[in-house]
Design goal:
- The chain is mostly helical and 120 residues long.
- It contains four helices and no strands.
- Helix 1 packs across helix 2 and helix 2 runs antiparallel to helix 3.
């Protein structure tokens, strides 16, 4: 093995050890931020907090989604049953996207922004 190949190998090993060292911390931060996002959307549907939900009387699907987001986010936040909860939450997000957001376009946020320019 040449000297250059050994140097590249050593550089890779140093990079790998740094990634292994920081990986649990970065994954925990990502899990906590995701949990807060789920909880905010769930509490908005269930309790009207931090902002009131646009639909005053929740249909059953919104109520179920709010409960899944609130309590699933809480479980993610404290780190209990993270893998099964993440599976359930990802399924709930898929239903929310394909049932409510996808009919507005592939990027629903852009559709909302375009409509807000027409109103203003």
């Amino acid at each position: 093995m040449s000297l250059d190949a050994a140097h590249v190998l050593d550089g890779y090993e140093v990079m790998g050890s740094a990634m292994n060292r920081w990986s649990p911390y970065v994954l925990s931060i990502l899990r906590i931020i995701t949990a807060f996002l789920y909880m905010v959307h769930g509490t908005q549907k269930l309790f009207g907090f931090p902002a009131p939900f646009p639909v005053p009387h929740l249909p059953l699907l919104f109520l179920a989604g709010g409960m899944i987001e609130t309590f699933g986010g809480l479980l993610l936040l404290i780190g209990l049953f993270t893998r099964p909860v993440a599976l359930i939450l990802s399924g709930e997000m898929a239903v929310a996207y394909f049932k409510f957001h996808a009919p507005q376009g592939f990027w629903p946020l852009l559709e909302r922004l375009a409509n807000s320019w027409l109103v203003a």
